[in-house]
Structure formats: structure tokens, C-alpha cells
Amino acid sequence: MAMKITVIGLGYLGTTHAVAMAKVGHQVIGIEPNQHRIDCLVQGKAGFFEPGLDEELAAQLATGRLAFKQAHDEFSRDADIHFICVGTPQTAGSMAADTSYLESAIRDVALYLREDALVVGKSTVPVGTASKLTAQLAQDTGFTAPNLAWNPEFLREGTALEDSLNPDRLVVGVTNSRSEELLREVFAPMISAGVPFLVTDLATAELVKAAANAFLATKISFINAMAEIAEVSGADATQLANAIGYDERIGNKFLRNGVGFGGGCLPKDIRALIARAEELGVGESVSYLHEIDKINLRRRDRVIALLTKELGSLQAKKILILGAAFKPDSDDVRDSPALGIALLAKAAGAEVIVHDPVALHGVALKHPELELQQDLLKAFIGVDAVVLATEWKEYRELDPKSVNPGNKFIIDGRNVLDVALWQQAGFKVLALGRTITN
């Protein structure tokens, strides 16, 4: 059965969720105060790079099931469910998450909320936030027991739309049967397709996302810590990861060592979990996450150390960084290891050239001090060293014979290159966590 839905906050999460809800048949209004974003969206442009999203956005606009507005109106009064998808950035000068956008969204929706309608948070928040927002909603509406639930998102940039339409699980934190019924109805197409539907309390639903990201960050940093040992002992961290990955208790996903993780979620989310645990008086339970964060950042320093060992001083050296986005199939440069390496090399006196298939616009806005090159083959000309820092397909499949740097030296920061092929083309290849005979 089609439902009337608002999606509040049209960034990466909100835009993708709004499109997905329209695609499964619901009537959706996306609400976003930024007029520029609205102007882009009504033209079928998400405003960020996500494979397939612009095409599906345009298709759903054409059906009439999806529309965008700057503020709530009478549609909101009739809506069955209001999904809140606003950002929870890291607070300046602190590790804690900033929940002020959520609080503002609650105040706005309260003016239009029916007593039997449901407000659903999807943003990543510190555990305990939903309880506070429920109290705020009760105060703002006058309802004795307003319906508020939590449905954490598990989107991966690069596969976000598919993850929304075919998630590996749906987690909903609820306080009453009415909320559960509405969520079962809105997600009925996914549930009927066999997606597990897990019902929890509010706090557990909030903690699920934080715990999942903390575990993922731990796994990535674990193999990078082993890579540090491999680099000084002669072991090969790539072979090591393959060997331990056969243990079904460990698994081989996210065990490829490299320059570390980044983006707008993992770094801030583990820091927010640390901050919240400390507020709750159990900071020691996640004290290891401090080291996870440090290991992650050390991988960027390791690349600079390898460059310095090979080239001597980086002063006036010309270095090409392949990649700016934190991962392929995304233009997100937030806390990107690739961009971090570029900035460290620049600070060491190098002339830095950055190439990325889609993310250069974002780099230009934030870091005009970096030289950007859109033509991949031109980017190689005359450079003293190359660092592959984001594993784009364009880099993995690049024919090394087609490029002509001044010094044939490349660091494979993601362990994705065919080393023998690059060596045959005359390159000296170094890779994190591996000993390569050149």
C-alpha cells in the first residue's frame, strides 16, 4: 500500500532514501531549506556523484511520486511517516556529534505532525539521542506519547541506491506496536523480498550503526597494524590477509591493507562513539578506538616516509596523487586519505598534482593550493613519483606503458596494481605492507 512520506534533509542519505521510497511506490516529498539544492534536485541532479542515482531521480520525478520543497506544507499534515535524514557532523573542537540539525528538524515537523503519524530518525547519532528527541517532540506537539522510531542507515557510497532498495538488513527501534506496523508497511517490498527485519528498542537501534562502523574501522586498522609489522620484518601483509581470511570467524572482507579509511562516516562515527561512551562513564570500553584512529592516520604518514626515503627531501619534487575521493565511485573528499597524503606532501615542499575521475571540483573548492589535472595521461608527465591512493578502476586498469613520468617510481597505496606489469614497463613499485623485489 502506497504511503505519504516526507524525507527531511536532502544530502547524500536523504536524497537516496527519497528516491528509493518513491521507486517502491510511495508518495514522497523531500524537504530541504537550501534552495540551490532544491533547484538541482527538481532538474534530476543529485548534486553529488553516485552511480545510477541521477537517472533514477529523474525517472521518479517523471512518475509524479517524488517532489521537493523548501519547507513543510499541507502534504506534511497528511503524511504517514516523516524520515529525518539530516547530518550529524563532528562538533568543532570536540569528538562529539553535533545533533543540532536533528533538534531543528524535530521542531519544524512538530508544527505539522498528526498524532498518529510516525517520525523516524535515520541519521547516525549518539545512543540516547532518540529518547531526548521523543521528549522534545512531546513538548513541541503536546502529544502525551508521540511516535518516534529509529531506523539506522547502512548505505555504502558507490552502491547507495542498491543498498537502499536491497539492504542486507532493516533495523528499527520502536516503542510501540503502531510504529512497528507502519515501518513494516513502508518497507513491505523489501521484507517480502526476504530482507531481515529486526525490531529493537530505540537505544539498540542507535547503537547498531555506531557498533557496525567501529567494528569495520577496527578490522581495517587491524590489517594496517599488521602491515606496519610486515614492513619491518620482511613479511607480506597481503599474503597474511589472504591466509587469515580463510578463517570463517574472521573473513576476508576489508582485510586489504593500504592508506586507511576516510569519508564522512567512519572517522567521525568512531570519534562520536568514544565521546558518548565517555559521557556515559564507560570510556574505557572503547579506549582501543583511540588507537584505531591513530593507526589509520599513520598510514598517510607512511606514504610520505616512503616518498622521502626514495626521493630524499620532497622540496620542489613533483608528485602525482592518483585519487582525491576517499573511495572509488564517489566524489566525497571528506577526511580522504588520498587528499590527506596530497596535503602532507604539499606541506613538505613538494609540487603536488592531483587527479581524480569525478572529485576534482570538490578539491578545488577546499584546497586551491593543490594543482589539479583532469587528463590522466598528462598528469604523469614529468613527475618524480606517483602515489595510487584511491582504487579507481581507471588506475587499476591503466596500461603503464602509456604513461611517461620523469622518474618511474610508483607507490601502490591500495595494493591493487599488477606489480609485474608495471615493473615490465620500467617502474619501481613499492606497496604498503609488502616487500617487492624491483
Task: Provide a quick synopsis of the model.
This protein has helices at 12-23, 35-42, 53-63, 74-78, 100-110, 129-141, 160-165, 177-186, 188-192, 202-233, 237-245, 266-279, 288-311, 337-347, 360-366, 376-379, 393-396, 419-424; strands at 4-8, 27-31, 66-69, 81-84, 118-121, 147-150, 170-173, 197-200, 318-322, 351-355, 371-372, 385-388, 409-412, 428-431. The chain is of the alpha/beta class and 438 residues long.
How do the helices and strands line up, and which of them pair or pack?
Elements: E1 4-8, H1 12-23, E2 27-31, H2 35-42, H3 53-63, E3 66-69, H4 74-78, E4 81-84, H5 100-110, E5 118-121, H6 129-141, E6 147-150, H7 160-165, E7 170-173, H8 177-186, H9 188-192, E8 197-200, H10 202-233, H11 237-245, H12 266-279, H13 288-311, E9 318-322, H14 337-347, E10 351-355, H15 360-366, E11 371-372, H16 376-379, E12 385-388, H17 393-396, E13 409-412, H18 419-424, E14 428-431
Parallel strand pairs: 1-2, 1-4, 2-3, 4-5, 5-6, 7-8, 9-10, 9-12, 10-11, 12-13, 13-14
Helix pairs in contact: 1-3, 5-6, 10-12, 10-13, 13-14
What can you tell me about this protein's structure?
This protein has two domains: 197 residues, Rossmann fold; 232 residues, NAD(P)-binding Rossmann-like Domain (Rossmann fold, 3-Layer(aba) Sandwich). The radius of gyration is 24 Å and the shape is globular. α18 links the parallel β13 and β14. By secondary structure, it is an alpha/beta fold. It is built from 18 helices and 14 strands. α10 packs across α12 and α10 runs parallel beside α13.
